[in-house]
Amino acid sequence: MTSTDKERPDGDTVEVRIPAAVVYVSTLRLTAASLAARCDLTIDDIEDLRLAVDEACALLLPHAREGSPLDARFELAMGRLAVETSVRTDDAAEPDRNGFAWTVLGALASSVQVRQEAGRLVIVVTKSREAAAT
């Protein structure tokens, strides 16, 4: 294994937990930008991902159980970064798929997935470098 191979982010994961409040979302945007650069995404892709993380959080926060955290898991690969954000909910919450935030999210991300899992609402946003996606 060369030193370059050791520095590749393939398979690395980073987890961040913040209070489920809008004032802390900038922490996730900055983390996403830093890790996206490590994944060799373009400057435009990095900016798209920063905004997509912001929109995903905007869709999740209204459903967060009071006092619970917002969790983020970043899965790194060369040319791709997947960001899984989730909050604990009190009911079978669903994001507003008819609003502006959902439209923006879909336009910025390479893929978006939503699921319910063990009392959590989860949104997974993936951004892939166009050259890497083909």
Secondary structure layout:
Elements: H1 3-7, E1 13-19, H2 25-38, H3 43-60, E2 69-77, E3 80-88, H4 100-108, E4 111-117, E5 120-128, H5 130-133
Antiparallel strand pairs: 1-2, 2-3, 3-5, 4-5
Keyphrases for this structure?
5 helices; single chain; 37% helix; alpha+beta; 5-stranded antiparallel sheet; 31% strand; 134 residues
Structure write-up:
Helix content is 37%, strand content 31%. With 134 residues, the protein is an alpha+beta fold. It starts with a helix and ends with a helix.
Mean pLDDT: 91
- What's the end-to-end separation, in Å? 26 Å
The largest sheet has its strands arranged as 1-2-3-5-4
Helix-residue proportion: 25-40%
**pLDDT < 50 runs, ≥5 residues:** none
Encode the helix/strand succession as letters. Answer: HEHHEEHEEH
Structural category: alpha+beta
Number of helices: 5
Q: Could you describe the largest sheet, including whether it forms a barrel?
A: 5 strands, antiparallel
Task: Describe the global form.
Answer: globular
Query: Taking Cα atoms only, what radius of gyration do you get, to the nearest Å?
Result: 15 Å
Provide a concise account of the structure shown.
The protein is α+β, with helices and mostly antiparallel strands and 134 residues long. The chain contains five helices and five strands; from the N terminus they run αβααββαββα.
